[in-house]
Design goal:
about 400 residues; mainly beta; Rieske Iron-sulfur Protein; five-stranded mixed sheet; four-stranded antiparallel sheet; 4 helices; 27 strands; about 35% strand
Length: about 400
């Protein structure tokens, strides 16, 4: 596909966003909604080692759930196994502790203690394959190929500047959200037809969300909203963070908005892409950041890395089962009018031949759009395909 076709597609999305004045989410089929919480109960636990790091990986393909934690806690190497359906617990260890999806011990002798998360997140395989060429794949033979990524020839960029492309929209052309409104999952008015703000069942149990829990407060940010905005700047208590989601690479991360040298900021969508991945910019300095590289790649803060905050990406039904007191973004309190029940990228999620933007390296060991979780250690990655769980 030619470059102008790439830009034309992105511009079409931009125009559809700009012109959408419906203001209410497109209703989904209510048959999948219900008031009952869902969790498959088939969580699988894998204990593994990568680059000297002992990890436990927890996953459920049915729940679109993949998590990773460091098995070492206070000098003790813990051994984990799955537990029967008993949310919020998803696994237990050899000491008799039970742990939730945020890595918190909810019962046992270590109750209240926290496992250390590892640098990991879920995304499409093609994205992991291009950012971390010839990455190790759990359960697969090591690749015999060798690929040397291009280096930057511009001191003002840490990535090749000629590989940074326009997505067809200007800065803030895809508008980030700051401090959206929420409603409680326990609010019956959210699930019933009414004359109130939520007129129909706009989200289904099977829809994906990005969940965060800080202290006693849990919140869910649906893909149905993130597909249209890509960044949500939010606060819980004293914690300021940004949920950053790239629909093109299927990657969700969470960054602390307190940056280097005491800088506090919000993030916006720059309209630029590197290897099809979002490049956010911080409003404090205008610096540009790579989501998948987890670093500032251009500007005043070049070379800095943001502090990452643990999130859980899973289905709405699973998140609600794990944290029934959660709240969820209210689609009528985002500050924008969008058809949030409608996916704006056609068949992109499922069509392996549809990448829209080119990437440096295409690794076909796994289908391009297969969802995997990668863990990063010392600049190298190992991925865990969702279908292994």
């Amino acid at each position: 596909m030619k470059a102008f076709q790439f830009i034309g597609f992105a511009l079409l999305i931009f125009l559809s966003m700009s012109c959408d004045k419906e203001g209410t989410p497109t209703p989904n089929d209510p048959s999948d909604m219900g008031s009952s919480d869902s969790l498959s109960g088939t969580v699988k636990v894998i204990q593994d080692q990568f680059k000297g790091l002992d990890v436990v990986v927890i996953g459920s393909q049915a729940d679109n759930l993949l998590l990773a934690f460091d098995r070492n806690l206070d000098g003790t190497l813990l051994s984990f196994e799955s537990v029967n359906f008993n949310p919020p617990a998803i696994m237990q260890d050899n000491e008799g502790n039970r742990w939730d999806a945020m890595g918190t011990a909810i019962s046992g002798p270590r109750e209240g203690q926290q496992l250390k998360g590892v640098n990991s997140y879920i995304g499409y395989w093609f994205a992991w394959g291009t950012f971390y060429p010839v990455a190790e794949i759990y359960g697969e033979a090591l690749s015999n190929e060798h690929f040397e990524p291009l280096s930057s020839d511009d001191a003002e960029w840490t990535v090749p500047k000629n590989k940074v492309v326009s997505g067809g929209v200007p800065p803030d052309g895809i508008p980030a959200i700051t401090n959206p409104g929420f409603y409680s999952a326990n609010d019956i008015n959210a699930w019933e037809r009414s004359e109130g703000a939520i007129e129909n069942l706009w989200i289904q149990n099977s829809d994906l969300v990005v969940g965060i829990k800080i202290g006693d407060e849990a919140r869910a940010y649906p893909h149905l909203v993130l597909d249209w905005h890509e960044i949500v700047n939010d606060d819980i208590g004293e914690e300021s963070f940004a949920i950053i989601y790239c629909p093109l690479t299927g990657t969700a991360t969470c960054w602390n908005r307190h940056l280097a040298e005491g800088i506090h900021t919000t993030f916006g969508v720059s309209g630029l892409l590197y290897n099809s991945n979002i490049i956010p910019f911080d409003r404090a300095t205008g610096s540009r950041w790579s989501q998948m590289r987890v670093e500032c790649i251009n500007g005043e803060l070049i070379g800095n890395t943001p502090e990452t905050i643990s999130i859980v990406e899973t289905t709405w039904g699973t998140w609600r089962a794990l944290y029934p007191e959660t709240s969820i973004v209210n689609p009528e309190e985002t500050g924008h009018a969008r058809s949030y029940g409608r996916y704006p990228y056609g068949d992109y999620r499922t069509n392996d031949s549809n990448l829209i933007f080119s990437v440096e390296y295409d690794d076909f060991r796994i289908d391009r759009k297969d969802r995997v979780m990668g863990i990063i250690v010392d600049g190298e990655a190992k991925v865990y395909p969702m279908d292994k769980f």
